[in-house]
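Practice problem: Ribosome hibernation promoting factor
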Amino acid sequence: MLRFEIHGENLTITDAIRNYIEEKIGKLERYFNNVPNAIAHVKVKTYQNSSTKIEVTIPLKNVTLRAEERHDDLYAGIDLINSKLERQVRKYKTRVNRKNRNRHDQEAFASLPEENEVPSLQDEEDNDDSDIEIIRSKNFSLKPMDSEEAVLQMDLLGHDFFIFTDRETDGTSIVYKRKDGKYGLIETTE
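Answer key — structure tokens:
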């Protein structure tokens, strides 16, 4: 059973909003054979220009489903989130079930609904059926530096992320450029 934790920022979550989110996102349960104690973390934020941002994260045993959408209409944004999550589930499900079939394991996901139950995603499914193919591989040495120097190096290279060894912790870290133009830092722990 999928449980929901819904939080609103600059917005009060009404019963109508809660019911709509639970109804739409709850439909994802049909793709799973066993979802014990799964929690869907939903964050809804409104901005001064009346646009909304919806983030949904569903951590499961072997995969974390996550989608984020900005839209002027809250309900339309929820519909788009649901479509994104459904595509993720279908893509992941196809790969997992294919691997398990080869090993004769029990399928982790339920069978897909019939064609008339779900809108056709034929073009996306054609792309999803192909195996993951790594077309390029790179090796490089990690240099000790602080996060500010790593951001400068990333900008000089024109990349969206940069991997480095943190001079203070001696651990591997990643700096990345966010959609809003600011920077993020991912630090590893042992």
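Discussion: The radius of gyration is 20 Å. Students who identified this feature from the tokens alone can consider the problem solved.
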